[in-house]
């Protein structure tokens, strides 16, 4: 893996040097981990003129799921009460002879930016922008393997929950149980706060579980994800509790399923991100649900649960091969509930079989 991290840093260095900047300071934790193999709490990465430094407030924890720093990056541990790692890194860049430093302005606070400018007035500060995030969009096979294992863990946790008795249990209790099962099956932890929504809450994107109890005839929508070696996947499914679905539930479910299938089938290298969104959205728009739709159909996943690209009406750019994304259309009807269906897939060319589905729990409308 050391060669992989070195190659990533080399690509970023080429970008930085082409912009006329001597060094770069990476502060966003996911970006630090992507380039250095680990991102201990409070650490920053300096791509310096003479060497790369991982500046930490203490020795990294020796826990596999935290990642391990790349051996070719030298650790620089600050002394006790040694201050801000970013400010210290700026001083180290100056000591290496840098006259300019690219920083992640979108991640730094105003006060931290001012501190950098004051501690190293001889450094010209420039904006690195989203350069690292753009490097992260296309995943290598090792990264995809981590996502695949995370998806298997999430599928397993969800499958076990569906075999248990659900009526009478609260949304909050079910969410906690799912998160425990994720860890039991080898996840670092949940990829995000698990959402369990029942009855009138079902289908609501980002619903926070409440003490509402599951009742017969409810829609139950679940959205969860596992983190494995830092990589985060996502799955969402909707079921009916305890009885045969009502006609309106079948109709709504079939419609969202058709929209999700339309979006999935549009995933291909070269496809415009907004066109994937449009393919799914048109199915629901044409049925009169335009007002009930979420702002986007999907998004990239990786070291963070919401990465580029965005699959949304205003999204720019096109998909590349080996980009993992979610396709997650849904409809929520206030007071009645709704449906969400959410998969994580990897964009693949048609010659390789088309999009690779990572989350494989059935999408049949089950009565539990």
TrEMBL record:
SUPFAM superfamilies: Creatinase/aminopeptidase, Creatinase/prolidase N-terminal domain. GO terms for molecular function: aminopeptidase activity. InterPro entries: Creatin/AminoP/Spt16_N (IPR029149), Creatinase/aminopeptidase-like (IPR036005), Creatinase_N (IPR000587), Pept_M24 (IPR000994), Peptidase_M24B (IPR050659). Keywords: Aminopeptidase, Hydrolase, Protease. Residues 146-348 form the Peptidase M24 domain. Residues 8-138 form the Creatinase N-terminal domain. It holds the Pfam family Creatinase_N. The keyword Protease applies. PANTHER family: AMINOPEPTIDASE, CYTOPLASMIC PEPTIDASE PEPQ-RELATED. This is Aminopeptidase P family protein.
């Amino acid at each position: 893996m050391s060669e992989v991290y070195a190659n990533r840093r080399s690509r970023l260095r080429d970008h930085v040097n082409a912009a006329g900047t001597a060094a770069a300071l990476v502060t966003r934790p996911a970006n630090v981990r992507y380039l250095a193999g680990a991102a201990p709490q409070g650490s920053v990465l300096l791509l310096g003129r003479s060497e790369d430094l991982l500046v930490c407030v203490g020795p990294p924890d020796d826990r596999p799921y935290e990642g391990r720093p790349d051996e070719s990056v030298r650790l620089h541990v600050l002394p006790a009460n040694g201050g801000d790692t970013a400010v210290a890194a700026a001083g180290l860049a100056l000591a290496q002879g840098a006259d300019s430093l690219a920083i992640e302005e979108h991640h730094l606070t105003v006060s931290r930016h001012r501190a950098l400018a004051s501690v190293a007035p001889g450094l010209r500060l420039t904006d690195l922008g989203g350069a690292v995030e753009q490097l992260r969009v296309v995943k290598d096979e090792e990264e995809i393997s981590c996502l695949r294992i995370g998806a298997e863990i999430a599928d397993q946790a969800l499958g076990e929950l569906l075999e248990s008795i659900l009526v009478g249990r609260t949304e909050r209790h079910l969410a906690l149980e799912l998160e425990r099962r994720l860890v039991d099956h080898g996840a670092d932890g949940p990829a995000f706060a698990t959402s369990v929504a029942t009855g009138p809450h079902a289908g609501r994107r980002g619903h926070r579980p409440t003490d509402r109890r599951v009742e017969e005839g409810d829609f139950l929508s679940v959205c969860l994800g596992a983190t494995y070696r830092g990589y985060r996947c996502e799955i969402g499914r909707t079921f009916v509790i305890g009885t045969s679905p009502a006609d309106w539930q079948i109709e709504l479910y079939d419609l969202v399923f058709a929209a999700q299938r339309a979006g999935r089938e549009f995933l291909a290298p070269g496809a415009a991100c907004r066109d994937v969104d449009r393919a799914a959205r048109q199915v629901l728009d044409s049925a009169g649900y335009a007002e009930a739709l979420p702002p986007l159909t999907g998004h990239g996943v990786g070291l963070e649960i919401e990465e580029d690209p965005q699959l949304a009406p205003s999204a720019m750019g096109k998909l590349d091969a080996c980009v993992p994304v979610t396709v997650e259309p849904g409809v929520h009807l206030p007071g009645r509930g709704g449906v969400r269906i959410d998969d994580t897939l990897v964009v693949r060319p048609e010659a390789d079989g088309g999009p690779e589905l990572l989350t494989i729990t059935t999408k049949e409308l089950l009565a539990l």
